[in-house]
Amino acid sequence: MIKLYIADVTGLDINACPDAVSPWRREKTLRLKNDDDKRRSLGVELLLKKAAGRTDYALTENEKPYFPDGGIYFSLSHCGKYAVCAVSDVPVGVDIELARENALRLSARFFLPDETELVERSQSPETEFCRLWTLKESYIKAAGLRLGDVRTFSVAHGVEGYSFGSKNIGEYSVGYCVKAPDIGEVEIINEKL
């Protein structure tokens, strides 16, 4: 089962939040110049705290956060006005993105031919690119890869041992992935921060 926590962070009071997050997140957020970037950064960890009840994570060499004692897996993402946190009892990844222009050019650069073909044949190439991109990035997170590995696999027909799902939230696309034979139940929780 995946629990997918989603929050609009546009109203988040950045001055009231720093003490509610981990030292690493607080330091990272303080280095950001833009208030919207700060809201997104704080928002993902506040969602993690709601989802898992804790923020005592460590970081892999790729700076992917994880709980060293296992048991619960999580993934964080943010874009625009949203923060997203996915939690599961198996490795999980999540990504949220806003469709962007130049989908055909971007797909030729970052996708394998079968994925590019899906974008080219789509009624809405920008939306399809965004959907596929979020699935690819969610797999990267679930599998512990790096963004530079984006052209080493295709999500067009799935990846062995992993299951995928996606959802639209307005003009945003959310992709999620678990290391399991099927996606299972997905509970979507809209949060207020």
Overview in brief:
The protein is an alpha+beta fold and 193 residues long.
In percent terms, what proportion of residues is strand? 25-35%
Give the H and E element order: EHHEEEEEHHHEEE
Within the largest sheet, what's the order of strands? Answer: 4-5-1-9
The DSSP helix count reads 5
Rg measurement, Å: 16 Å
Q: Looking at the chains present, what oligomeric state does this protein adopt? A: single chain
Q: Specify the biggest β-sheet.
A: 4 strands, mixed
Termini separation comes to 24 Å
Q: What structural category characterises the helix and strand content?
A: alpha+beta
Report the average pLDDT across residues: 93
The parts where pLDDT drops under 50 for at least 5 residues are none
How many runs of DSSP E, i.e. beta strands? 9
Instruction: Name the shape in a single word.
Output: globular
Structure, described:
By secondary structure, the protein is of the alpha+beta class. The chain has helices spanning 23-31, 35-52, 103-110, 113-121, 125-143; strands at 2-8, 58-59, 65-66, 73-79, 82-88, 92-98, 163-169, 172-178, 186-191. The protein has a 4-stranded mixed β-sheet, with helices on both faces. Strands 6-8-7 form a 3-stranded antiparallel β-sheet. Helix 1 packs antiparallel against helix 2 and helix 3 (103-110) packs antiparallel against helix 4 (113-121). It is globular and about 50 Å long. The two termini are 24 Å apart. 35% of the residues are buried.
